[in-house]
Request: fold
Amino acid sequence: MNNSNVLMMTPGPTYVSEEVRRAMSQPIVQSDIDPVFYELYKETTEIIGEILHTKEEVLILDGEGILGLEAACASLIEEGDKILVLNNGIFGEGFGDFAAMYGGECSYFNSDWRRPIDIVALSSFLENNNDFKLATIVHCETPSGLVNPIDLICPLLSQYGILTVVDAVSSIGGVPILTDEWSIDILLGGSQKCFSAPPGLTFLSVSQAAKDAMRSRKTPIRAFYANLMIWEGWYEKQWFPYTQPVSDIFALNTAAKKVLDDEEFCVRHSRLAEKVRREILALGFELYPKDGYSDTVTAVCVPDGLNDVEFRRRLLEEQQVMITGAFGPLEGKVFRIGHMGENCYEDKVQKTIEAIRAVYTTMKR
Reply:
């Protein structure tokens, strides 16, 4: 099979536009001493800051989105710190593993994996359980296609002085996020999702409160690469803590500008996500989330009698459309359609729906 003919509708990595690919092909520069590159890096962080609606510092780290999760935990958590893990999905639960890795004592607020976190239940819990240094939250649970109400959750946690670390890797750009207004202390994103840049970069915003917590640690941060404090004063000093992936940052700069300049970006994500859900339901499928549907990825229950692996194999081989299954407890129970960034266009969505209809109709016979 010629991969160039395959329509890749997975929830990241996404397609990369020719404009972004050309940006990536620019000549390599010496990032450690080239003042022009320092300005480009700074410009890129400022563009991302505009998209995130934050005046706080934004950093770009040389590593896929998981690096941001680990860096937040490494930089904030000391041995014995009490951490609240909001868990209603695979990534929400897994966030606790990173917190525990750096000595955090994790308490889990467990919720239905098919529904957003209930703000009333969380509020009731916090009335008697609020002695936490920080809380981890996943905005968009990519494996289950569900979005949590961080606009309500983070301000509530902030009232108790609890720092908030939000994984928004698969939602940033595709849905509006008001980082400062919603009291988000660290917001984590990745280049390969809605921004549709090549995979390999994390970007994140860091509040002053989060920086103060890092500076007031009693023990050193147990990392170098995952230590956010090594970036202090990078622009004033004209010094990076390690050699920068210049080609990836060229690409991210162009991709971020495309997102910022497209006034219909979030509107298109919302409209086409609704179309996917409507068409999927019309075919007789059930959506995995009961509500709180994501505008960047749709998770669909695999019907009884349908082999998920065979269904996706035939979709790829017969229709040249690639979607993905799930993993962990959802493996074999859910398949997922990514409609984010460069995947989020009417023609691509329509072709995907038609392909699913064709294969599913044949397999039901």
Remarks:
- Residues 101 and 359 are 44 Å apart (CA to CA).
